[in-house]
Design goal:
The structure holds two protein chains of two kinds. Chain A is an alpha+beta fold. Chain A has helices at 2-35, 49-64, 67-76, 142-163, 175-201, and strands spanning 79-82, 101-104, 110-114, 119-127, 165-167. Chain A has a five-stranded antiparallel sheet with strand order 1-2-3-4-5. In chain A, helix 2 (49-64) crosses helix 4 (142-163). Chain B has one helix at residues 18-33; strands spanning 36-43, 49-54, 68-71, 74-75. Chain B starts with 17 loop residues before the first helix and ends with a strand. The chains are: A alpha+beta, B alpha+beta.
Chain lengths: 206, 77
C-alpha cells in the first residue's frame, strides 16, 4: 500500500515538474531580462555635444553679423536681411522697386516680404545638408543654419533663391506667426531707437 | 561648419609663407571638391556686414582673416 502511494506520489511529482518547469523557466528568464542592464550601442554618443556645437555656432554667427543682427537673433530668434535684387527675388514679382527683405529662421524656410506693407511674398525652402553625416546627422546646429543662410543671401542672393524650392507663403510657416514676428521686429526696432535717443540726449554728470 | 560640432578649424597659416600658402590652397580645393561652399565675411564701407562667396583661392580678398566652408545649399522641403 505504502509502496503504491509512494509510486503514485513520484509519478505526480514528475508530471507536475514536466508541466511547471517550462513556465517557471520562462518566468525566471523574464525576471533576469528585466533586471539586466541594457547596453545600448551608442557609438560614442555624447549628450552634451549638440549643445556645445550650438554654443560654438552662436559664437561664429556673432563674429560674422553686425551688432543689430546679432541682437535681433538673440532677442527675437530670427534675422532680417535686406534684398538686393533690383527686380525682387522672383522675376514675376512686380515690386515696382519697393524694398524687400528676408526673415531667416533656423531650420525653417526663408521668408521674403515687403517691409512697408508687411506683405509676404514667398517661402524659400533651403537646407545645407552635410551628406558625410560626420555625427550621424546631416543637420547643422541652429545658429550655423542661420549663418549659412545669411552668408548665402548676402553673398549670392540670386543663386540661393534659384537653388531653394519656392512656395507661396503659409506652406510651412503660419503667416500669422510671420506677421506677429514682423510686428515684434517693429516694436523691437522702435525700442532700440528710443534707447539710442535717450543715450544720445543724456548728459553725463560732471 | 559640421553637424554635431559647429565650427571646426581646418587649416591655418600665413599666405605670405610659401609652404603655408600651398597648404591653404590644397585645403581650399579639397573643401570645394567635397562639395562645400566658401565665404568670407566682411564689413562694407557703409558698416554693413555681408559675405563674399569665393570659388577659388585667388578670389579670397587680401587681408581676409578667415574663409568659412559650409555645406552647399539644396532645395529643402
Amino acid at each position: 500500500m505504502l509502496l503504491a502511494l509512494s509510486a503514485s506520489a513520484i509519478v505526480i511529482l514528475v508530471l507536475l515538474w514536466e508541466v511547471a518547469w517550462p513556465v517557471a523557466a520562462e518566468r525566471f528568464e523574464r525576471w533576469r531580462a528585466r533586471r539586466a542592464l541594457v547596453e545600448v550601442e551608442v557609438d560614442g554618443y555624447d549628450p552634451g555635444r549638440e549643445r556645445r556645437a550650438e554654443q560654438k555656432a552662436r559664437a561664429l554667427l556673432r563674429s560674422c553679423v553686425n551688432e543689430e543682427e546679432w541682437a535681433m537673433y538673440r532677442e527675437l530668434g530670427f534675422i532680417r536681411v535686406w534684398g538686393g535684387l533690383a527686380d525682387g527675388p522672383e522675376r514675376d514679382d512686380d515690386l515696382g522697386g519697393a524694398p524687400y527683405a528676408y526673415l531667416i529662421y533656423p531650420h525653417k524656410p526663408v521668408i521674403a516680404y515687403l517691409p512697408q506693407t508687411r506683405r509676404l511674398l514667398n517661402e524659400y525652402c533651403v537646407a545645407f545638408p552635410d551628406e558625410t553625416r560626420p555625427y550621424g546627422s546631416a543637420r547643422l546646429p541652429d545658429s550655423d543654419d542661420v549663418l549659412a543662410k545669411w552668408m548665402a543671401l548676402t553673398g549670392d542672393e540670386r543663386r540661393l533663391v534659384a537653388t531653394a524650392n519656392m512656395h507661396l507663403p503659409g506652406r510651412q510657416i503660419d503667416p500669422k506667426q510671420v506677421r506677429r514676428d514682423l510686428w515684434r521686429l517693429t516694436q523691437w526696432e522702435q525700442s532700440r531707437m528710443r534707447e539710442r535717443h535717450r543715450g544720445a540726449g543724456s548728459v553725463s554728470a560732471p | 561648419m559640421k553637424p554635431g560640432h559647429g565650427e571646426v578649424l581646418i587649416a591655418e597659416g600665413d599666405v605670405d609663407v610659401p609652404e603655408d600658402h600651398e597648404a591653404l590652397i590644397d585645403t581650399f580645393r579639397a573643401q570645394l571638391d567635397a562639395g562645400m561652399w566658401a565665404a568670407v565675411p566682411r564689413a562694407t564701407p557703409g558698416g554693413r556686414r555681408e559675405a563674399q562667396m569665393v570659388t577659388s583661392f585667388d578670389d579670397v580678398p587680401p587681408g581676409a582673416d578667415r574663409v568659412i566652408f559650409f555645406p552647399r545649399a539644396a532645395g529643402g522641403r
